[in-house]
Amino acid sequence: MRLVKTNRLLKIISIITAVILCASALASCSCSPSSKGADNNNIKITNVSYDPTRELYQKYNEAFSKFYKSQTGGDIEIIQSHGGSGAQARSVIEGAEADVVTLALAHDITLIEQAGLIDGGWIKEFENESAPYTSTIVFLVRKGNPKGIKDWNDLVKKGVEIINPDPKSSGGACWNFLAAWQYALNNNNNDEEKAKDFVRKLYKNVTVMDSGARGATTTFVENGQGDVLIAWENEALNSVSEYPDKYEIVTPSVSILAQPSVAVVDENAKKNGTETVAKKYLSYLYSDEAQKIIGESGYRPSNERILKTFSDKFDLDVKLITINDFGGWDKAYEKFFDDDAIFDQIYNG
């Protein structure tokens, strides 16, 4: 009888111990909102971004961490994720734990909104339609420009090998396509059939179509393939800066104002308890310190005053069309990049 009572007592002690340990484990679980976002002394957020922003956000994250420390006394860990903008948007929709997204075009963020993860009206949450920096599309050619590439019409010539990312996965590639399309319209009295023929010829000259803009840069710069890279301006500037004797930039007669967009992933931020810091993280991109980092990183600051201080780096007189010339991203995507839309017609036809 005494043995039975002893066993019962031991079982009770074991159960109590297990409950205490379980409660302790739950309290310290890394996936609980409080451990990620609520404690200013131990906070973590994830920024899901597109390919060419790696270096920009490495510099910006360091600056923001110092700012955050000065304001709160706490530390912050910022996790970066990079890939083709369209692919990154899909990864968030499929469950990637992004607190913020900083993607190549507004349409990719709209897809996340439509999945119920971002609140409506996100594009008005921050200045300049939630675009703290812009870029444009240029050509990167080898030093001396051996193929004599000066404008879009030179890209359809026989024997010109083009490196360009895939619009199905890369936001930058969508901007590239639209700039080429507008050039073709301008030079063919707005005849869309002739524009289709022009971009069809251009894409026949594409010898490598990487999934993202950074992959395309690597193919051209590191692997030595192709005669010309259709590139983000910041990618081209960084390549010339790193290899001044190997590459040069050609600015076409028609290009496009590329507006990368940013947003808080509201559903994730609420769950993680990071709403406040996520908004601060994106808001600080508009600060003078961040705008200078943006210009130094090859992106065009949205602050006009600071942009002018980089007039020696950027061609501020280039003619830039905008996404509004295409009726906005919803209409542009439906017309050009949805399945069986114009890109599929010219590329698969």
Question: Which tags fit this structure?
Answer:
349 residues; alpha/beta; D-Maltodextrin-Binding Protein, domain 2; 2 domains; five-stranded mixed β-sheet; 13 strands; 48% helix; globular
Q: What does this entry show, briefly?
A:
48% of the residues lie in helices and 14% in strands. With 349 residues, the chain is α/β, with parallel strands linked by helices.
Structure overview:
This protein is α/β, with parallel strands linked by helices. The strands form four sheets. Strands 7-6-8-5-9 form a five-stranded mixed beta sheet. The radius of gyration is 25 Å and the shape is globular. It is built from 16 helices and 13 strands. 48% of the residues lie in helices and 14% in strands. It folds into two domains: 33-133 and 259-308, D-Maltodextrin-Binding Protein, domain 2, CATH 3.40.190.10; 137-257 and 319-348, 3-Layer(aba) Sandwich (D-Maltodextrin-Binding Protein, domain 2), CATH 3.40.190.
